[in-house]
Specification:
Tetracycline Repressor, domain 2, DNA-binding, homodimer, 2 domains, 9 helices, 73% helix, 207 residues
Chain lengths: 207, 207
Amino acid sequence: MPKIVNADDRRELVADAVFRVVRESGLAQASLRNVAAEAGLALGSVRHYFDNQAELMEFAFRVSSERIHLRALEKLEVLEDEALPADGEALLEKCAVVLEELLPLDAARSADAVVHMEFMLDARTNTTLVDAAQDDYRATGAVVGRVVMQLMESSLAVPGLVPVDEAERLIGLLDGLSLRMVLQPAWAAPEQGQATLRRHLASLLAA
Amino acid sequence: MPKIVNADDRRELVADAVFRVVRESGLAQASLRNVAAEAGLALGSVRHYFDNQAELMEFAFRVSSERIHLRALEKLEVLEDEALPADGEALLEKCAVVLEELLPLDAARSADAVVHMEFMLDARTNTTLVDAAQDDYRATGAVVGRVVMQLMESSLAVPGLVPVDEAERLIGLLDGLSLRMVLQPAWAAPEQGQATLRRHLASLLAA
DNA sequence: TCTTTTTTAGCACAGATGTCTCACGAATGC
DNA sequence: GCATTCGTGAGACATCTGTGCTAAAAAAGA
């Protein structure tokens, strides 16, 4: 039989090349040739693992989305498994740790956030990406929703808050912060975004 | 002398064609040929008014940005000129009206927001757009900052709030809401965004 | 009417892109 | 050793892009 190359590994390797190109030069530059060169492969090799460019892009999008949400889900399970802290500051800290996985706070998360943003915007007019975008929306909604639930279940939350409404507001804030930090890193530093998130969470808890 | 065509009008007409193409098919499809076809002009005509594609794009970006901020500034001056309402609800309403100009609440504002978003993201890797993006950032920062000032100057605001911090949080929320409403209009309806904004403003005012 | 200058239109070139096809290479099982 | 099968690479084609250059058309002044 022929040469053995783990196809799944190869596909992820190509996806990583897509990420680097998008991060450096934007999604518009993520042509098959540029991606192949970045991956150190020939054009024919890339096309051997992906029939279309569309298939490659959707795959890369899904990998990027999963990478972000899996990270957040890991932290989330820690939060949900342990007993809820009775202390407000401790609860805030635990929730912030989960949500911070969605923000571009370091190089790795920033790279993911950039790629994520470009794909989401592209999915608006690229019909081959709409399904992946829907799944992404559901995933972030689930993560943020579960964090809000933890906040609300504690007796520390400001009374009268509506969970769905606060989830909506929190998702908006996270998306906006992420966007600003990605587009204007000089004006929106990581510590600033981190602080803004925590201030917002603090405003949801009764003093 | 020759045929009279107001050059500035023509440039804005072409810019409008850019907006329609971007709105329908994304910035990547805004080639000179597509834009010319959308404007009902020949390729050579478009190139007569813009030397480069880069020049056309920067012009369109600036027109889009100005259009949004001028609308908000109009409402803002009304707010600043009149006496501050002593009533919390009235103050909230006046501030909301200004900030709502930055959200895609109707077809016109949605079109502007889409174009704005695409250009901002493109400016990350397109060096010919970074200056325009900087100016845009300053403009929104000024509008939101002045609204926050109005809120803080009233005696109705929650004590202890830091204006700069609240402006940062508010800008983040606005950007995030805008992004969500643009990308997922089915899940983020105008009334919802409007309500979320007002809820946030309400949380800044003491009950 | 003729001239001048703007506006419009078109052709042509080099470069890039997605896709198709085919040939070479390499590793595994017989 | 050899054939089979996957992996790799390269060439070619049609299409689209920005841009440079040239020529026609149109309108206003003389």
